Amino acid sequence: MISEAKIKFCYVYLPKLDSVMHNHGPFSEATKAKLESLQKQISELYHFAQKVYDDVSLYVISDHGMAPVHDSFDLMPMINALPWEYGKDYVAFYDSTMARFWFFNNAARDDITSLLSKLECGSIVDQKEMKELRVWFPHDRFGQLYFLMNEGVLLNPSFMGLKPIPGMHGYHPDAPHSYSIMLSNQSIPPDIQSITDIRKTMESELAK
Fold this sequence. Notes:
By secondary structure, the protein is α+β, with helices and mostly antiparallel strands. The chain folds into 2 domains: 2-68 and 175-206, no CATH class; 71-166, 2-Layer Sandwich (Gyrase A, domain 2), CATH 3.30.1360.110. Helices cover 31% and strands 17% of the residues. It has helices at residues 16-24, 29-52, 76-80, 106-117, 127-132, 198-206; strands at residues 59-61, 67-68, 71-73, 90-94, 98-103, 122-124, 145-149, 153-155, 167-168, 182-184. Helix 1 runs antiparallel to helix 2 (29-52).
């Protein structure tokens, strides 16, 4: 407990902003009000900790960004119209921002790949780019073909929902609204470039 001055590290998880941004959009009045509420909560916790401890390091970290949704695309009917049977020739999982495919014959793979390569709402993520993004695995457990939507465009309907919503994340890491944030009252090293760098930042802080 902070009040007992016995802990060296305290992790506070505040997840409700995600839901507000999904349901109202990242630039909505509801999001603004939630951010102001979070600012108040975090500030009060920080000032309380300062009364108990001689030195307090504060880090505020978001896990991902959130893009405003401006369009949706119904991919399933296009795939279903091809002469291939779901579960026999291929399997697909339709997420909000990505469609993943597994194939049981090469003809189905070729037809689906050809269809997807002609669409302007998204693009196929090839193995080279997946390796660069550090999301490639030497197995096909998570998919054999990945089709990623352009930022702000939802796959809808999808296995995640039947109606478009105002905000979504899960787009390409280079998309303008994909960036997350780290704020601190300490100097943040310039090599912090990814969410996976958070651990080394916390380890460095605890080593002080």
